[in-house]
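Morning run. Coffee first, then this:
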Amino acid sequence: MQFIINPFTGKFDAIGCSSPTPPVEEYITFADPVVEAICVANWGSNGKLSYTQAAAVITLGNKFSYATENPPAEPITSFEELQYFINLKDLNADIDGYGAFEGAEQLTSIIIPDSVTSIGDYAFSGCSSLTSIIIPNSVTSIGDGALESCSSLTSIIIPDSVTSIHPDVIANCSSLTSIIIPDSVTSIGGGAFAFSGLTSIIIPDSVTSIGDGAFNSCIELNSVNIPNSVISIDRAAFIDCSGLTSIIIPNSITSIAPKVFQSSGLTSINIPDTITLIGESALRFCSSLTSIIIGNNIDLIDSYAISACESLKDITITTEIPPTLGSNAFQDNILLENIFVPAQSVEAYKIAAQWINYSSIISAIV
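And here it is:
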């Protein structure tokens, strides 16, 4: 018996049997007619989109973006059929920077196929009806603002294939109360969780840096665990975190960045001996702060660093040499009663520049 390759199936058919016939094409059934119309118009034929045609798509471009000059005429609500686009490589922004689903305000559900390796900038920005999303393990990069302003998002799983949390990635997600950062992540970008609904967060010991304003205005945040692996916490990282009453600064940190805890809910804080600088306005407007202990290697307390803390009564500084004190560093601390310093250094503090303004309340550590 002789065989011939069936041109439709790629398999061998016996000669003499019935003529080769094409397989029956199967078509995707879409739950959302608007999504179906967009898919058929761009990749389908004869008013339908087959599984084969979906499998041929490697990028979506801005076909579903509502931020472009020519957005879809009607809102989309679900796209779980995206899972059948099994060779889709990315959900990246188009050449003009518009996110793949940016501004799709009525999108409630979507399933990302595990062929996707990159979720681009602003991919789901403004998808305010999206309640949950599962990012497959194939994804290694999640771009800036990718899930920004997803105000209904309550659940997200970040796979351990992701190595960095990009800037603003989950900013303004006001319904998101918790998230697990995988051990693969080494950096948290600026504004990454700003204005989110997070109540607590554990930062894994793989993380080395926390960017500008990373947790800006997370007013419900009351618990943060910062590991010793973190060597930098940038400007305003925890600004306006009014629910944050305590925090432990790891010994791996050498400076307190400007405005890092400004207007937070801290009631007390211990600045470790590794810290040499407290930046401008670092603890300004901490209205619940009653006491602060500053370690023995401090060189500079910058302008307004610990000012307008209306409940602050005691400052303890353990270094013998008076550090440089910036202008107005302790301004408007209306209840400040004591500045405690080493006994052998009391007189040195009382005559040092700027410190002389507080000479009447400088006394020895008991």
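Confidence is low (pLDDT under 50) at residues 3-11. Good start to the day.
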